[in-house]
Write a structure and sequence with these properties.
3-stranded antiparallel β-sheet, Alpha-Beta Plaits, globular, 250 residues, alpha+beta
Length: 250
């Protein structure tokens, strides 16, 4: 009987804070679900209406981000409180830490490159295509894809962490990354091997694809840095339709 009571006491010590953490995670999911339900129309005739809509979305996102930051702080306190010396708790904590890293929820430091992209300061001539005088969302998407392909382990655009759920798109005259409005110059960081720089500079690679912009006065600079700091992802991680499953086939 005494052995059973000790077992129950041992379980409750680490299960209670985890249960509370699950409640907080539920609240966080609810907040992120609210933010995910707000969508930006892809086409609006009135540019002023587009800008007003973007500003309203930014205001809502900032409010929910503050609430999420507070909940994440409380969750971190509970994670510390649940840390015991037993092997089960250690394994759970290690798995949680790995999951956070893979999801981009933790900051990263390491060697890598910084790519700065700037619009051309020139006014396009009457017979020139203005498209080749500014940086577009597709230019940023192509750069990020090239960095991933070259072995980057963490990427950010103007301090917005790029993860599997990241969207990069134009809405009117602005570029949104993770629902946050950013503008040129675009500061793209990538943590990874020396191959990152050589991949961008290879013949027919990314740098060559930006030749028209560069010829028109735009700039694309690549710098190797011994240690970069990339901030964690702060957006939504809610999965509304997909469900995980284990593949039991051999």
């Amino acid at each position: 009987m005494e052995k059973m009571n000790n077992s129950i006491l041992h379980i409750s010590k680490w299960q209670f804070p985890i249960a509370v953490a699950c409640v907080i995670l539920g609240i966080m999911v609810g907040l992120e679900y609210r933010s995910k339900n707000v969508e930006v129309p892809l086409q609006l005739d009135d540019r002023r209406e587009t800008l007003a809509l973007v500003k309203d979305l930014e205001s809502q996102r900032n409010k929910m981000s503050a609430e999420l930051a507070e909940l994440r702080s409380r969750l971190a306190d509970l994670e510390k409180a649940s840390g015991h010396n037993d092997s089960v708790s250690k394994q759970m904590q290690e798995q949680l830490n790995r999951s956070k890293i893979e999801a981009g929820l933790t900051g990263m430091k390491g060697p890598g490159i910084v790519v700065v992209l700037s619009d051309s300061p020139r006014t396009p001539p009457a017979n020139a295509d203005p498209y080749f005088y500014i940086i577009h969302d597709v230019d940023l998407q192509s750069l990020v894809n090239e960095l991933w392909a070259a072995g980057a382990e963490a990427v950010s655009i103007n301090d917005q962490r790029v993860v599997t759920r990241t969207s990069i798109r134009c809405v009117g005259p602005t570029v949104l990354v993770n629902g946050v409005r950013i503008s040129a110059p675009y500061n793209v960081k990538g943590i990874g091997p020396n191959d990152l720089e050589s991949a961008l500079r290879m013949p027919g690679g990314y740098l060559d694809s930006m030749a028209a912009l560069i010829n028109n006065g735009g700039q694309v600079t690549i710098s190797r840095v011994k240690e970069l700091t990339i901030l964690p992802f702060e957006g939504s991680m809610v999965f509304r339709y997909g469900q995980s499953f284990e593949d039991k086939n051999p």
